[in-house]
């Protein structure tokens, strides 16, 4: 199961790289229309996600038990808005304005922010390995 997780992690990174490079190529070929392209990509990706979600809910018949998970639905929706919509919009705008070679390393600093936010809101303390990872991430950027 862990090997499958590594596989999906690598595949995810590969598709994010292809996505970023494809977007920059498209952005370079369409002058002053980046915001429309970004909004189209956001709509398209969210629409595809909605189709997969509906298919999953109908297949598992799990939609009846959702009323028991209001807190989970709230935080899941919050994560979707912040990570999915606002995060993706910001990522694509950064690629458009900075280029993929600057935007991607900047966006890969998210573990640093996740650790800081987890410390304050979840009271999670990082160990020596986590702190050394933060320092390595900070200095390699």
UniProtKB/TrEMBL annotation:
InterPro entries tied to this protein: EamA_dom, EmrE-like
Signal peptide range in chain numbering: none
A GO CC annotation given for this chain: membrane
Segments traversing the membrane: 5-23, 35-54, 74-94, 100-122
EamA domain segment(s): 4-138
A Pfam family matched in the record: EamA
Keywords carried by this UniProt record: Membrane, Transmembrane, Transmembrane helix
Domain of life: Bacteria
Protein name: Choline transporter LicB
Organism: Avibacterium paragallinarum (Haemophilus gallinarum)
């Amino acid at each position: 199961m862990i090997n499958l997780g590594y596989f999906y992690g690598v595949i995810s990174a590969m598709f994010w790289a292809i996505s970023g490079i494809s977007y920059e190529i498209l952005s370079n070929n369409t002058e002053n229309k980046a915001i429309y392209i970004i909004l189209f990509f956001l709509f398209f990706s969210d629409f595809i996600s909605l189709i997969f979600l509906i298919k999953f809910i109908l297949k598992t018949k799990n939609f009846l038990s959702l009323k028991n998970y209001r807190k989970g639905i709230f935080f899941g929706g919050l994560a979707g808005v912040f990570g999915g919509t606002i995060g993706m919009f910001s990522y694509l705008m950064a690629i458009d304005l900075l280029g993929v070679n600057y935007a991607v390393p900047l966006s890969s600093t998210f573990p640093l922010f996740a650790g800081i936010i987890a410390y304050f809101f979840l009271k999670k303390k990082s160990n020596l390995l986590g702190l050394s990872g933060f320092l390595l991430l900070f200095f390699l950027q």
